[in-house]
Amino acid sequence: MPFAKLLEDVSQIQAPTKPIEDGHSIWELVLHLITAKELIVDLMHGEMRPYEPGDEWPPVSNASAGA
To answer: Taking the model in full, what pTM does it have?
Structure first.
């Protein structure tokens, strides 16, 4: 099943919610997967970019319904 299909019914209220203390929200997990994919694609194309600890978990900068 495509990843986007799994997220179709996730609401704006559910996405940023952290179900367990010190866990990650759905929104954070999606941003993490996008970041990992972008890094892998860049590496496959021979592109190196600086990496800082914490880069793999970008912050949710816009929690609006449109985002």
So the answer is: 0.79
